[in-house]
Amino acid sequence: MAENTNIVVISAGLGVPSSSRLLADQLSAATERLARGAGFAPSVTTIELRDLAVDIANNFVTGYAAPNLAEAIAVVERADAIIAVTPVFSSSYSGLFKSFIDVLEPRSLEGKLVLLAATGGSARHSLMLDFAMRPLFSYLRTRILPTTVFAAPTDWGQGAAGDRTLGGGLTARIERAATELVLELAREQGAAADDRPAATLPKVATRPEDKSFEELLADLTGADAV
User: Which UniProt keywords apply (predicted)?
Assistant: First the structure.
């Protein structure tokens, strides 16, 4: 019987379309696909913070959470795992992202699995994940996954119709982070690898730099390399 698991995606992108939301969607899609392959019944909820910006600001002034904000807070509190994605502003997470974290009850995130991700204008901004986001979620006593995902403009390619598509390096990082999340969910919910068919749980390559992109994806998804 498939195990229900709640995955909440927090996207702090401001534009429409937003590269942060695009990255969030790719992370959630990979996680959902791998979770279903591992025997879970994942329920994915995406919270778009730009739609809650006014309610978040009012909450600081009045101490009252409007219905939409209250529901978003409740969804986060019920989460089994969180995928948190923010753009980089002034070498840190965005003010909107931090404001939403601040309206949460601090202990509500304790012990939750968290996958950290960010977007920025330069690959140099990827350091923010380790020097700003990781300390924030460590302070909140969450269980942060080893792999974080950063997407710079150079990580996005151009499709035939001009649409943005994923480049190989970013795809591999997304798959690896999603795999780690699913494996941790399996351990947390008592679904150890020896309790399931070996082919259902994704595997993480020990040295991805020694493998081709196709081989890495095969390791991560359990599929045969083409």
Answer: Flavoprotein, FMN, Oxidoreductase
> Do 202 and 183 touch, CB atoms closer than 8 A?
yes
Measured CA distances, 162 to 85, 158, 176 (Å): 24, 5, 27
pLDDT tens digits, 12-49 = 998 888 899 999 999 999 999 999 999 999 999 999 99
pTM (predicted TM-score): 0.82
* Contact between 83 and 124 (Cβ < 8 Å): no
Distance CA 42, CA 39 (A): 9
203 lies in a domain? no
- The torsion angles phi and psi of 165, rounded to 5 degrees, stand at -130, 165
| Residue 201 included in any domain | no
Judge whether 208 lies within some domain. Answer: no
Residue 69, in any domain of the structure: yes
Judge whether 145 and 113 are in contact, CB under 8 Å.
yes
Q: Which amino acid belongs to residue 188?
A: E
pLDDT tens-digit map of 113-136: 999 999 998 888 899 999 999 999
CB 118 within 8 A of CB 128: yes
List, for residues 90-101, the tens digit of each pLDDT value.
889 999 999 999
Residue 164 predicted with pLDDT over 90: no
pLDDT, position 131? 95
Question: Can you give the CATH number for the domain in which 74 is found?
Answer: 3.40.50.360
